[in-house]
Amino acid sequence: MVSSKAATPEAYLAELPPERREVVSRVRDLVNANIPDGYRETVAWGMLCWGIPLERYPDTYNGQPLGYAAVAAQKNHYSLYLNCIYASEERTQRLKEAYAAAGKKLDMGKSCIRFKKVEDLAEDVLAEAIRSVPPDEFIAEYERVRAR
User: Fold this and answer.
1) Residue 2: its pLDDT value, please?
2) Which of 30, 40, 50, 58 is the most exposed place for a label (fewest CB within 10 A)?
């Protein structure tokens, strides 16, 4: 599945074949166990997303919740999006170094970590990255970038 029309995380997972549901569920559990308070899980852009709700921060460039993390089952792989990494060169570098130290190969775009199976992920490294930015700090980073 590249994009879903599901309205809830549970509906998104229900659309997936069992083996893909298992992988996405495990990554979802990793995010939910480590995401700081103040982010909300939803479905947006056809994937599971965690972001700052509009009632907390409505001033986004696209009128959508400010996205922090997302996970999707793509056609030939899975994607974990971490905007907290994309927003900081220092955090990006730390993630790359920690992945290398864990002996894992990192297949990464700007915010997207692509993987074929859960075992490809350095889960402890990702847990730390997910925990790294509370909502107030993420909003402040977003506002600094937008002000440029």
Assistant:
1) 55
2) 58
The single-letter code of the amino acid at 24 is: V
**Measured distance CA(83)–CA(97) in Å, rounded:** 18
- Long-range contacts at 58-64 (CB < 8 A, ≥ 24 apart): 60/142, 61/146
Question: Is 132 a domain residue?
Answer: yes
Residue 92 CA to residue 84 CA, distance in Å, equals 9
Q: What is the pTM of this model?
A: 0.93
> In sequence order, what E strands does the chain have?
40-44, 47-52, 66-73, 78-82, 112-115
List, for residues 56-99, the tens digit of each pLDDT value: 999 998 999 999 999 999 989 999 999 989 888 999 999 999 99
How far apart are the C-alpha atoms of 148 and 146, rounded to whole Å?
5
- Token pair, residue 49, equals 């997303």
Structure confidence by residue, pLDDT tens digits, 24-42: 999 999 999 999 999 999 9
Counted domains in the chain? 1
- Provide the total of helices (H) and of strands (E) in the chain, helices listed first: 6, 5
Note down the domain range covering 134.
9-147
